[in-house]
Specification:
Blueprint lengths: L4 H29 L6 H19 L4 H29 L4 H30 L6 E2 L9 E3 L2 E3 L1 H23 L1 H11 L1 H6 L4 H23 L5 E2 L8 H10 L5 H26 L6 H15 L9 H11 L1
Antiparallel strand pairs: 1-4, 2-3
Helix pairs in contact: 1-5, 1-8, 1-9, 1-10, 2-3, 2-4, 2-8, 3-4, 3-8, 5-6, 5-8, 6-8, 9-10, 9-11, 10-11
């Protein structure tokens, strides 16, 4: 019996739910817009800080209110990024690499903007917003299954992940706007010629994706012991690895990626630690190896790299 295996399994389930909530919008945004968006980490962090400012300044500990507000704010930030940065660059014919670098610039800018905001909030409230403790919410119950205690974070992330999966399925498969999103993802030029308002569809996609990641950030405040303006950054390796496993196009494969990475990071490292003495600090290394392997074997379409991709490209030129 592996010591602590029950806790490792519970952690696997918890992180799988978080990775689903964080990675599905990343895949959906890339599939529709073809932008590898590093500012995705900001959506998670800003969502968390909506809850933190509500709690720290107004004394509000209602997750549903924080989630709605975070959805609107981070969704609006995502649309703003597209309108002011990504779309102008695309209209100038900038390469995907340049647009990706611009998202890195946004990522850094938003991070230090938040640091400044937390400093200002600290000045007026004398509270430490740079490292904020876990929030206990009044509207999220704890649970128990088979004698196993379920935390507020687990209950909230289970409900949210289930809603995200079901609502995204209904949106993409059963609604007119969902079919328009799929058409823009498949062939944006043809979709535009067919009368689909591409600009509206792209902005709506950004709004939904930014909003979902923001809600995930709110839930993170009920899980993490210390939330900082780099909360989203600490998960960017896992979130992008999960998205890359899905090829940044398949929501189903992204879900499988969430299960895989959560299992590797928790059960996998527990097994390696027990039988081979591998330190648990090697956990991110396992994710990094998975990321590199994914990029080599099956790089996301349009993201370049990958040996098979290069060989195929070279062969097509002959």
């Amino acid at each position: 019996m592996i010591p602590g295996i029950q806790q490792a399994i519970m952690n696997t389930l918890q992180y799988m739910l978080f990775y689903l909530i964080f990675s599905l919008p990343l895949t959906l945004s890339y599939r529709t817009t073809k932008v590898i968006n590093f500012a995705h980490a900001n959506f998670i962090t800003y969502g968390a800080y909506v809850a933190i400012f509500l709690h720290g300044i107004m004394g509000l500990n209602i997750m549903s209110v924080a989630a709605i507000l975070a959805f609107l704010i981070t969704g609006a930030i995502a649309v703003l990024n597209n309108v002011l940065v990504f779309t102008p660059l695309q209209k100038r014919g900038s390469s995907p690499a340049i647009i990706m670098i611009s998202s890195m610039g946004l990522w850094i800018a938003y991070k230090y903007l938040l640091y400044m905001t937390t400093d200002i909030a600290h000045y007026y409230t004398i509270k430490n917003f740079v490292s904020y403790g876990r929030i206990t919410y009044s509207d999220v119950p704890r649970g128990s299954v088979g004698g196993v205690e379920l935390s507020q974070a687990f209950v909230a992330s289970l409900i949210t992940a289930s809603l995200v999966v079901v609502l995204l399925y209904l949106l993409l498969e059963k609604t007119k706007i969902g079919r328009a999103m799929r058409a823009v993802a498949d062939n944006p030029s043809l979709a535009e010629i067919s009368g689909i308002p591409k600009s509206f569809v792209v902005n709506l996609t950004w709004f939904i994706c930014g909003g979902i990641a923001g809600i995930g950030g709110v839930i993170w405040t009920s899980f993490s012991g210390a939330i900082t303006p780099e909360a989203g950054d600490s998960m960017i390796l896992q979130v992008f690895t999960v998205g890359f496993i899905g090829g940044l196009v398949s929501l189903l494969r992204t879900g499988i990626g969430a299960v895989l990475i959560a299992t590797i990071e928790n059960v996998g490292i527990a097994i390696l630690n027990t039988y081979f003495g591998v330190p648990v600090s090697f956990r991110p290394f396992l994710t990094f190896v998975t990321l590199i392997t994914t990029l080599i074997v099956s790089p996301p379409l349009g993201a370049g790299g990958g040996l098979p991709y290069r060989f195929l490209k070279r062969g097509s030129r002959k």
